[in-house]
Amino acid sequence: MSKEFGEIIRQARKSKGYSQRKLAELLSVDFTYLSKLENNRADYAPKEDVIRALARHLNLDEEELIYLAGRIPHQEEDFLRENYKSMPTLFRRMRENPEFARKIFQEATQGEKSRRR
User: Fold this and answer.
1) Is residue 31 classed as helix, strand or coil in its secondary structure?
2) What long-range pairs does 25-31 form, CB within 8 A, spacing at least 24?
3) Can you list the alpha helix ranges (DSSP code H) found in 1-117?
4) Which CATH architecture is the domain 5-74 placed in?
5) Burial (CB count within 10 angstroms: exposed 0-12, middle 13-18, buried 19+), residue 34
6) Domain segments of the chain as ranges
7) What is the pLDDT of residue 1?
8) pTM to 2 decimals?
């Protein structure tokens, strides 16, 4: 089972030795807002720039954190707008055919590794 956004940032903050107040100061947000994020009690997902700053300060993967927070990265919005009608079909095929889903994820992961080299 994957961890939730708040749990990941709380654990990373603690392992870095930051207090909520110190990390909030680095992010230019109120520490009470950071507390809400860590407890998954915020009324809305943080803005992408806040998530990216969290990732940088806590040495976390920015894209993974964006998705865990329920945000879509800006660079993906156009793609999703262009292909929104096909998405339900893709998701249904992936649910119905786990081997197809594994193949899609495996190819996506290999593509990411190649781009990072």
Assistant:
1) helix
2) 26/53, 26/57, 27/53, 27/54, 27/57
3) 5-16, 20-27, 31-38, 48-58, 62-68, 74-83, 87-96, 98-116
4) Orthogonal Bundle (1.10)
5) buried
6) 5-74, 85-116
7) 31
8) 0.67
